[in-house]
Write a structure and sequence with these properties.
This protein is mainly alpha-helical and 112 residues long. The protein has three helices and no strands.
Length: 112
Amino acid sequence: MDYSNAVTAELPVAPRPGPASRHRGGPWRELSGALAVGMSVLAVVVVVFQVLAFARDMPGPGALTVLGHIAAAVLAVFVQRYADRHAGWMAVLSVLGVVAVSGAALWLFWWA
């Protein structure tokens, strides 16, 4: 057999894992993540209730309430993403921001 026209191909090498992340979540970051997810679920529930109320020709939560829940959920998720990607005081402030946004939304739309 003549192997003079043979072509060799180099097999791909899997990338080596980088160093372990020095950012640790901790219970406060996990709590704020749960709050962000909870605000997202609550926004979906409020939207569903508004759609059901509209379909049955009944008054629902209203446009202000629906838009407020959506805005609070989006803001909480973006602030949580920032907290997950940073460390130090900025992460602490971001966690507090998620708590503040969630608390404000619950206060304004549910208890006030």
